[in-house]
Amino acid sequence: MVQVLLVEDDAAIRTALTRALRDQGHVVSAVGSGMPALSAAVEQKPDVVLLDLGLPDIDGADVLSMLRAVSDVPVIVATARDDESSMVRLLDLGADDYVIKPFTAAQITARIRAVMRRTGRTDEDPVITVGGLTIDTRSYEVTVDGRPVELARREFELLLALARRAGEVVTKRDLLSEVWQLAWGGSDRTVDVHLSWLRRKLGETAAAPRYLHSVRGVGVRLAAPTDPV
Amino acid sequence: MRRRILLLVVGMTTLVVLAFAIPLAVLIRHTVYADALTSLRTDTSKIGLYLRSADAAKTSDDITSYLASISDGRRVSVQLPDGSVLGTSPPGDVAELPDASGGSGEPDGGPGFGGRGGPPDAALVSWQGGRLSQLVVPEPSFRGGFYVVRVFASDGELHSGENGWWLLLSGAALALLAIGVLAGEVMTRRIVRPLVETAATAQQLSAGDTTARAPTDGPGEVADVGHALNRLADRIDELIAEERETVADLSHRLRTPLTALRLDAEALRDPTEAERVGGHVSALERMLTAVIHAARRPQREGRMPSCDASAVVAERVAFWSALADDQNRACTLTRPPAPLLVRAGAEDLAAALDALLENVIAHTPEGTAFAVSLTPTPTGARLEISDDGPGLPRSEPVRGRSDRGSSGLGLDIARRCAESAGGAMHLGSSATGGAAIVLDLGAP
Questions:
Q1: What pLDDT is attached to residue B125?
Q2: A166 CB-near residues (< 8 Å, 6+ apart)
Q3: Is B405's CB within 8 Å of A185's CB?
Q4: pLDDT digit string (tens) for A202-223?
Q5: How many other C-beta atoms are found inside a 10 Å radius of the C-beta of residue A151?
Q6: DSSP state, B112?
Q7: Distances (CA, A) of B303 to B300, B307, B308
Q8: pLDDT tens digits along B79-88
Q9: Are A132 and A145 in contact, with CB atoms under 8 Å apart?
Q10: Minimal Cβ distance to A206: which of B279, B326, B358
Q11: Peptide bond before residue A102 is cis, with ω within 30 degrees of 0
Q12: DSSP-H helix ranges across B327-370
């Protein structure tokens, strides 16, 4: 259970997101402008703040700066702008992560989880082990049978998404949503090509899988080599 | 304009030359004629003095040779007291001539030597299409006889001295005209060249090249036009940039209600309905992203994007090779080793190639080989993606047109890339009957 402070001026998003996050077991308090957000952040001491940039009273970026002056609570910024310069600016201002609109509740949950993990505010074990595969979620290090594996960011996120649900078949749709932030868009081939790279780097092939098993028509399952396929 | 300025210069110069030349010509004609008449009378008097000089008796031969020396092409004659004539008589019947001592025949001067010893004074009359100078000289021996000296020049001879002047005058007029034309041509060039360049700039601007700028080094007024056009081009640039920024900004704002829509779609109880509405939201989102992408393109890639197609193709084919290997697809890449520049941003070209490779993988069975070849052409480059699959369906709305995720906007992305690079996309068949898609890309 994570206590989330949602700062969002759009009532429709606020209501929908509050409901979605509560459904996932989070405690949500929602405010619609900057000043109440600052006082709530100080008084309620939330575990994470989800901050929308377009606020009616104070600019979201200013709220972020002010918040950083008084608290080190993890902040995820929700923004409509996806250009690199605005991202860099937000991260420089002290945001821990960002999510680009339009997002899904699943993406927000994944971001919250990732931020909590990175900032060490979770009970979850930072190291996930599946057979000989270990994934350190803090240092972004992956080893297979003790051998380090260099992964690109997307590949790491893909592996992590699968590892966190090890043994389960994860649909490509879920992966697109969680890793690529493309809920209904995107192409299965995008997942396929990254899976191929992941296989190469883990030292296996589609024909002779060890950890990554494609389940035709359904999705992908990550399992230890000894697990029954 | 050049022709008109030249015509104006020629016209003005001609007018000025005429304004001076006509009075000058009248003056010359008058002066030359007057000089000729004076010479006629002077020569008549000279002959008179010669005849009158009493130094020695003159034989007919003496007189004849003296007349020849003084004639200068005119008819010079002396009528002796006995009535015989030496030299060349004037035309016509001299008997009809008025008496040299006066009477009819419009004597211009005095009648002759009055025996006073003064200078001989010839009389001038108009005679037979010319002028005749006549002088009566008494015999030096005072025998009572008279010589009659006659010098005749036709009008043509009287005016013959003008020819040289005419030549000089027309030479000077022509020279002035030539100088005028030359100066006009130089001046015209100075005015016309920047004007022509300014017009070319305006054409470039209207053709969409907003980087074109006019020269500002001509004459003041033309330079002003250049400056004004350049300011206009700058302003167009600003307006386009502002417009694009507005579009991007509006599209960004649309993402907020879209988020609410997406969250609500997710919350729908019926999963089929949730997926259907979610699909619509995703389609809307993709279009919005495409709009923002297009609006921001110049900011991202500059106004004239270009990239090394060879490097982009190599990089993307390498990226897809992992999946190709997994699916046992043989993948052949042909590309020039040297950089091959094309008029497309690296990101756009990569997206186009990704879409086409993704189509091959999505629409051909596993194990189907495909080939990517990049070759230079006179106009830029040709990128061909061919496969050994079943080939393209016959109807035009070819695969990849669906807006439902799987192959994205496939061919549309590729077509847009080729067209914005000044080329085109062609669909065809490969040697093995599979699909072959050719993108012609222009050089930057």
A1: 86
A2: A128, A130, A222, A223, A224
A3: yes
A4: 999 888 889 999 888 889 999 9
A5: 20
A6: B
A7: 9, 13, 17
A8: 888 888 888 8
A9: yes
A10: B326
A11: yes
A12: 346-363
Nearest of A76, A52, A186, A12 to residue B263 by alpha carbon: A12
CB of A63 within 8 A of CB of A51?
Answer: yes
What are the pLDDT digits (tens) for B2-46? 888 889 988 999 999 999 999 999 999 999 999 999 999 999 998
Q: Which two tokens stand for residue A80?
A: 């409509």
* Spans of chain B below 70 pLDDT: 54-56, 98-120, 142, 301-303, 394-409
- The alpha-carbon gap from A208 to the nearest alpha carbon of chain B, in Å, equals 10
Interchain CB distance below 8 Å, B266 and A200: no
Residue that the structure tokens 């200068």 belong to = B72
Q: Which amino acid is it at A113?
A: R
DSSP state for residue A229 in the 8-state scheme: -
B402 touches chain A (CB under 8 A): no
Spell out the residues 6+ positions from residue B32 whose beta carbon is closer than 8 angstroms to its own: B159, B161, B162, B165
Q: Do A102 and B325 touch (CB under 8 A)?
A: no
Q: What is the pLDDT of residues A29-60, one digit of tens each?
A: 999 999 999 999 999 999 999 999 888 888 88
Contacts of A197 (CB under 8 A, 6+ apart): A152, A155, B322
Interface of A with B (CB under 8 A): 10, 12-13, 16-17, 19-20, 54, 78, 80-83, 100-106, 182-190, 192-193, 195-197, 199-200, 205-207
Q: Which residues of A touch B255 (CB under 8 A)?
A: 80, 100-102
Q: A74 near A122, Cβ under 8 Å?
A: no
DSSP type of residue A184: S
Angle at B352 between CA B351 and CA B355, to 5 degrees: 85
**With contacts defined as CB-CB under 8 Å, which chain B residues touch A54?**
256
Say yes or no: B232 contacts chain A, CB-CB below 8 A.
Answer: no
Amino acid of residue A1? M
Alpha-carbon distances, residue B198 vs B2, B115, B224, B230 (angstroms): 15, 89, 11, 9
Tell me the residue type at B338: A
Helix (H, G, I), strand (E, B) or coil at B134: strand
